[in-house]
Amino acid sequence: MEHNAAIEMRGITKRFGQVVANDSIDLTIRRGEILALLGENGSGKTTLMNMLSGIYQPDEGEIYKEGNRIYIHSPREAFEYGIGMIHQHYKLIEVFSAAENIILGLNEEKMDLKETGARVKEICSRYGFDVDPAKKVYDMSVSQKQTVEIIKVLYRGADVLILDEPTAVLTPQETQKLFRILRNMKDDGKAIVIITHKLHEVMEVSDKVAVLRKGRYIGTVNTAETNPQALTDMMVGHAVSLNIDRPKYDDPKKKLIVEGLTCIDDEGITKLDSVSFTAYTGEILGVAGISGSGQKELLEAITGLYPVKSGSVRFIDDSGKEIELVGKSPMKIRQTGVGMAFVPEDRLGMGLVGSMGMTGNMLLRSWKAGKGALIRRREPEALAGRILEELEVVTPGVDYPVRRLSGGNVQKVLVGREISSEPAVLMTAYAVRGLDINTSYTIYNLLTEQKMKGVAVIYVGEDLDVLLELADRIVVLCGGQVAGIADARTATKEEIGLMMTQFTAKEDGR
Ligand SMILES: Nc1ncnc2c1ncn2[C@@H]1O[C@H](COP(=O)(O)OP(=O)(O)OP(=O)(O)O)[C@@H](O)[C@H]1O
Ligand SMILES: [Mg+2]
Predict the structure, then answer these.
(1) Ligand 1 pocket, mutate which of 14, 47, 51, 405 (most atoms under 8 A from CB)
(2) Terminus-to-terminus CA distance in the chain, angstroms?
(3) Which of 2, 21, 5 lies closest to 13, judged by CA?
(4) Does the model's pTM come out above 0.70?
(5) C-beta separation of 421 from 363 below 8 A
(6) How far apart are CA 414 and CA 361, in angstroms?
(7) Contact 84/161 with Cβ under 8 angstroms?
(8) Interior angle at CA 164, CA 163 and CA 165, nearest 5
(9) Which of the four pLDDT bands, split at 50, 70 and 90, describes residue 376?
(10) Using an 8 Å Cβ cutoff, are 3 and 26 in contact?
């Protein structure tokens, strides 16, 4: 038994049919330490942790808690061993309060909510959470919901906490808050595992990094003795370049003119307030903003999916003719010959049909494009095969349901399909969310390739470092307004950050 080891996993193997998700993995998780678990999409991180959270049982191997062999058959048993996992998709009940959710399933429902509230408050002040036990979940932000999930786990007495990509949905500020809490928990002697694809977060918050590659355990290194490049090489198994090329396109032309675009939602709230900008061919136009600043509505309004109150969106065709898009449905826009492609945030809702394979999803797009039902299957099948090969999609086959693929592979299928439609305007929302670093760079390169083909690329992103490296210009949204348009070659992160909060700074008191 190693010193300080809270959990030891030895020789853990887990198979799903033919897939060996975990191949004889050894991993030690220590008290008073934050361990980052790193690996490409599909390398087996979630599977490995789910064997600690009681969701899966290993086919082979042993698990020890404080030196004693344990068998975890269910999430409830995991709790009994003091292991709690915060999954990516929260399992809270919307109509219940924070306190009600926290005691849910504990056979303590009849317990005094005041007493729970008091204990929740105690946990909060101990670790620095800030949550109102009486607040209903439906009134909470994503970050607050996550907080409730963490408190729920602590309330059950967990001393081993596993967080699966907790920062994927957080703003940079919320991430900082979470990291402060994790450090407090670590100082309190808890063992913490965090899964994240963001290497700067790994460098910032972890003490050690364990790396998986294709289901195998590669090794654990001290964070202080490594760097993002070395970690990437370990993860991928060979040297990877972490530079984004930003070539200049020779002959940019106006492609999309957005003018005074205003959108109001069902409840009368202004989502976009007189937004104006022009997107050029051969340009990646970045869109930055704290989440909920109108990014989603902007892309949806341009594609005809969100109702527009006033303003215009004009597409300029090759002959220089302006085509008004406002008031047209997505289908009508396509029929008008406007080549627009959209990679939405919700990949398996608005993007792909999860139950269908790659071929089916290709077929869907060509059908949507109005080519008619007569389309033969050969064409989509060939396209699916090409995307599989060129983007190195990991799937048992082109007819395997896409929802069973790992997040990164789903995104490759979607981006591949959209690019293959040879659009004039390509819009992406959070294109690399949840993707490993290597796949993210594949996507950046693909977008840059499109730009150099003369496509007008609109890239909504959350990582300012990437926006500043990838984009040519950056439109900064704040509260549904354009706070500014920056030259990405000269702007700094601080300038963009300031613009992002310019209209909200006052009410936030910051
Ligand atoms: N329930 C399941 N049924 C079949 N295959 C599965 C299942 N869960 C995971 N897999 C497969 O096991 C492998 C490891 O998946 P896992 O989700 O653990 O990867 P990951 O490292 O968490 O990836 P990501 O970074 O994309 O979240 C993948 O090939 C995946 O497709
Ligand atoms: Mg995962």
Answers:
(1) 47
(2) 48
(3) 21
(4) yes
(5) no
(6) 9
(7) yes
(8) 110
(9) low
(10) no
Q: How far apart are CA 325 and CA 368, in angstroms?
A: 18
Residue closest via CA to ligand 1's atom 28 equals 42
Whose C-alpha lies nearest to ligand 1, atom 26? 41
Cα 364 to ligand 1 centroid, rounded to whole Å: 26
CB atoms within 10 A of CB 74: 12
Amino acid letter, residue 476 = V
Give the residue-averaged pLDDT of 271-298. 95
Q: Among candidates 76, 452, 419, 105, which has minimal Cα distance to 251? A: 452
For ligand 2, the distance from its centroid to the CA atom of residue 41, given in whole angstroms, is 7
Residue 375 has pLDDT above 70, yes or no: no
Which regions of 190-349 does DSSP assign to beta strands (E)? 191-195, 208-213, 216-222, 254-264, 270-280, 283-288, 310-316, 322-324, 340-343
Question: What's the CA-to-centroid distance between 221 and ligand 2, angstroms?
Answer: 21
Distance between CA atoms of residues 147 and 155, nearest Å: 12
As a whole number, mean pLDDT of residues 173-179 equals 89
Whether 429 has a pLDDT exceeding 90, the answer reads yes
Q: 46 CA to middle of ligand 2, Å? A: 4
Calculate mean pLDDT across residues 251-263: 97
Q: Which residue is closest in CA terms to ligand 1's atom 4?
A: 16
Helices 228-236 and 437-452 pack at an angle, to 10 degrees, of 100
> Looking at the CA of 410, which ligand is closest?
1
User: What's the order of all strands across the beta sheet hosting 310-316?
Assistant: 270-280, 254-264, 310-316, 322-324
